[in-house]
Amino acid sequence: MSLFSSGKYSTLRMPTSGERKMVIPDGSWVKCKNCGQTLYTDRLHDNLLVCWYCNCHLPMSAHARIVSLTDPDSFVEMDRGLKSIDSLGFTDSKPYSARLEENVKKTSLNDAIVCGSARLDGHPYMLGVMDFRFMGASMGSVVGEKIARMVERATAEKLSVVIVTASGGARMQEGILSLMQMPKTCAVLERHAEAGLPYFAILTNPTYGGVTASFAAVGDVIIAEPGAMIGFAGPRVIQETTNSKLPEGFQTAEFLLEKGLIDRVVERKNLRKELGLLLEFFKK
User: Fold this and answer.
1) Which residues pair with 124 in a beta bridge?
2) Are 137 and 107 within 8 A, CB to CB?
């Protein structure tokens, strides 16, 4: 008996001639990487890219993050035209220049961070947001330079600084030039602190390597999203190197809150309010 006959399995049938088929556009649904549930894309964006089944905080683009943390139309980007160059002539599986070009086309960004001035609840501040889609938001010369320029402007204008991190660490294609961004960003933030001005770091999943070892870890207040993985080297590398079993929840935001590395774990839906309160409390 055919599955599409009027017998035992008659609930399954082929569409008749001329009958319209339902067409579901590509990208209408995504699967949660944590629980595997299928999520309706429009509802997911309305929920700030947080799974309503397991509360997994899914990756967020820089521009979506900016909208979530600023007053409408208040963000003004700076240094948008800065681009990385292949000064070392580096080639891994492909030339670095080709890799940069691919990522610019894929993300419509010139590098892995977007910086600019903004307002939240009327409070002016400077905001930098990393975008993991661009080469894993690895920190190269442009990332470091954009942060330095943003912080220097904030110091001159007596404004708070907020940086939202999401990074795999230093950009290997730039070698020592990438590593130099660690002291560079920390130096400008130190001058900012000496001027009595606050810096708030918001760590999202993942934040690793040279970013964690520099500007991500020196905030006056350090906030992390639930479940964010934060560290220098990954858990597998550490476990293999030390030949020891790591504690449960190692390198999660909740684990680091317990150990005192971060100050608060805040759900994405509450981040806007939390940041507004910080800007109000620390305003000059």
Assistant:
1) 119
2) no
